[in-house]
Amino acid sequence: MALRHHHFLPEGVVFRANAPGSPVRSIGGPMKRLFSSIRDGNGFDIVLVAFPLGFLFLMAGLPLLYNILMSFQEVDMFSLGTFLRPFVGFKNYQELFAQPETWPILGNTAIFVIGSIAGQFLIGFGLALFFWVNFPGASWLRGLFLVSWVMPGLVVGAIWNWILSGDFGVLNFMLKETGIISGNIFWRSDPNYSLYAVIIANVWLGTAFNMILLSVGLASIPGDLYEAAELDGANAWQRFWTITLPMMRSTIGAIVSLGLIFTLQQFDLFAAITSGGPNNSSNVTQYWAWDLSFRQYDFAKGATISVIMIVFVMFASVVYVRSTRHEVRG
Amino acid sequence: MSDTNRNRLMLVIALVMAAIYLFPLYWMFITALKSGSEMFATPPSFWPSEPQWGTYAFVWESRGMGRYLWNSLIIAFGSVTLITVLGVGCAYVLARYRNVWVDIGLFLILMLQVLPASLMITPIFVGFSQLGMLNYPRLAVIIAIAAKSMPFFVVLVRATFMAVPQELEEAALVDGNSRVGAFFNIVLPLARNGILVSAILIFMQAFGEFVYSKSIIQAVELQPASVGLNSFMGPNTNEWNNIMAYATIYVTPILAIFVLLQRRIVSGLTSGAIK
Lengths: 330, 275
Known about the structure:
By secondary structure, chain A is mostly helical. Chain A has helices spanning 2-8, 13-18, 30-40, 42-71, 91-98, 102-132, 138-144, 147-150, 153-163, 170-177, 194-219, 223-231, 236-247, 249-265, 268-273, 285-294, 299-323, 325-328.
């Protein structure tokens, strides 16, 4: 890989000098040289990279900075149109943490993240281990699970909203038939259950993605390790703990941090199932930030909570980047 | 137990698990076919006694689904086009070189990939309203989606370009191709499949996008199907058969694409996210 870049640094000149019919490069003014570099030199790479990075900087980088700026400003409907709003220091942050709902919502976010990741990962790992035993049709069936992940989040939310319905929901019916519960659970309107209603839907949505990535990790473990362990008399349980888990460490790290990233991005299910209610019992920061800005028109608060959460997400992504480092580095 | 019997047993267990996992989808299809009274029957029926096929036409008409889906298509095609035009070149350069600048660029791109849309919408909305972009709401949504999804696309397509042998491009250069020529005639055609699969993944995402559309597009006649579904589901709705019919119409094209291209989509996805 390190050699790659060498081949191209002399930049065509070496190749071209011997190539018949190629344009002579050194003649011409600066403009001409610029164009020829874009057509046939490093300029080509720079053009290819400059536009997308510029676009990303304008449309993702600047909003990020603007978000931080707004969290230190007083923003209302009248000052929306100007950049020069009154600067208020940390007032938004102080007010935010003085609000009674802030800590419960942060707590909900933690429960949502931990519950979702645990559910997705454990079920996903179980399924991945099962499908690891190769049988005809295994890979096709395994891929089929991924439909939960490609469906629009709003549709997933709508389906689960109906399944989790209190009086007529099919989940309550099944739980009653199997004797797990005796009375209907009002998943969406009971403050004790509303957050778990969204967690259930999110676990369903994310399990398949976890399973597919874990399958990739499992497939990359060399088979002779297991043969050797079997010869040494290790049973299946020991093989799992001494070979599978250690070999999967970087995959698991990547998947858990990806899970954290995706869980903190989950918005559609809240919009479709509980809208954060009742009484904020199922509200999480990423829904609350939107709710503050677009329902209560308190853009400064929305920006403030966004800044706090984005810092969090950045942490998660550093972990993710580190665990996929060998891939990133090519 | 012989191998064939073991395989059969495994297959049966796998089918049962798939059936359990995909039950919500089944429930959507079935509910859409139930009549208003059958839907609320206890115990619930797991097979519609009199399938109400008319519900689809009714929902399509009464909710104006044609317009919603058309808007979804515009937004999805617009985002995919913008992302592909910008992202392919970026992925190519990031796959071709290995130095500290590429590492920095990749790191920044991975960082951008993780920003939650619902947190980014506040500054994007305020910024767009200051720039007057809200007068072109669908274009604004397309741009916002492109900024959100392009990092993911770049990561996926970069993995594809890494698999194209460098020697082929070098040979093309020796043969007198310019860099531009080698890129378009040799490298792009070889990476075509990977780019296509990544574009389809982005398309499916953009087709179901909700946060940006909900926040930016105020006019009902410009809203996509996800926002339409959201406004269909009031807090105390009891039209679940109609809602499920809406969801079925909305999701079936995506499911069809997915089932047809499943193998490619899955392998494209895994090559990018983890290796």
